[in-house]
Amino acid sequence: MADTIRFDDKVVVVTGAGNGLGRTYALQLAERGAKVVVNDLGGSTDGRGDDQSAASRVVEEIRAAGGEATANFDSVATQAGGANIIRTALDAYGRVDAVIANAGILRDRSFSKLSQEELDIILDVHLRGTMFTVQPAFNWMRENGGGNIVMTASPSGLFGAFGQANYCAAKLGIVGMMRVMAIEGAKAGIKVNALAPTAATRLTATAGMSGEATEPKTPEEDPMSTGRVSPLVLALAHASCPASGEIFNAGCGWISRAVVAVNEGVLLDDFSPEGVAAQWDTIRDPSRLTVPVDATDYWRMIQAKTGATG
Asked: Residue 277 is part of which domain span?
């Protein structure tokens, strides 16, 4: 049996924590001893408006249960907002041990009709918003013994989904950012991973899936419960987490790792498009996959296959 995972004396920032997955993360972290910064602008699912009551209610729940929490109402979509979210943690508690970058919105549209505004706002909240929040935390952790960062990807970003070109681009961008942060933060003891969650929330309701239950249900009662995702998130946010630079899926209680992999491929001897066309079956064969550690490792694979130098 694994040791009990506790967050006593640890400070965890959760963005988008007023509802859905973020709320569940915040409540469960506090139950296990964390001091939680509950961030939520309180906007609608498409990013319009603001309402401080969302974050405030979660803070009240945590305090009523005997926990410690502080609300923050900044938008993640600006550099000043992201910096102030982390500053709230430092001012209130003096440290940041983990950040869960969870805030998100949707502006779904088929690719042929997607507007620049619909692209920009999704990139602002998801991609830039993740960077604006985690970068100041990353810099503080680098000088103060490390920490854990959990970034939110998506099955849509990994595998594609109709009508979500903007969202998928942002989410896969987060994966690339996570990989670099894991490489650059390793020596400082910073672990960075990405989560692709599947659960019933306000956002999934707008995308045609089950929405957040009006009456809270336990993970045992509801397969789409946010409580079937949160165990992985808390494990990733804990100092004992062995992983960094990895992508994890969680939904309905099933947890898995997603990888970016390379197959055996072919070594061309006919350097023409016809030479490629003749080898399509082998080039596309998904068997015998290798998972490169990073871009340098991938270059070593090329060298081993081809004898290239440089």
From this structure: 261-310
Q: State the Cα torsion 218-220-221-222 to the nearest 10°.
A: 80
Distance (Å, rounded) from C-alpha 161 to C-alpha 174?
17
- Taking only the tens of pLDDT, the chain with its 310 residues reads 678 999 999 999 999 999 999 999 999 999 999 999 999 998 767 667 677 999 999 999 999 999 999 999 999 999 999 999 999 999 999 999 999 999 998 888 999 999 999 999 999 999 999 999 999 999 999 999 999 999 999 999 999 999 999 999 999 999 999 999 999 999 999 999 999 999 987 666 555 555 555 455 676 667 778 999 999 999 999 999 999 999 999 998 999 999 999 999 999 999 999 999 999 999 999 999 999 999 999 999 999 999 988 6
Tell whether 141 and 188 lie within a shared domain. yes
Q: Is there a single domain that holds both residue 130 and residue 269?
A: no
Q: Give domain status of residue 114, yes or no.
A: yes
112 three-state secondary structure: helix
Query: Is 284 found in the same domain as 217?
Result: no
Q: Assess whether 167 carries a catalytic annotation.
A: yes
Exactly one of 25, 93, 167, 298 is catalytic; which is it? 167
Residues forming beta bridges with residue 70, ordered by sequence position: 37
Give the CATH number of the domain where residue 180 resides: 3.40.50.720
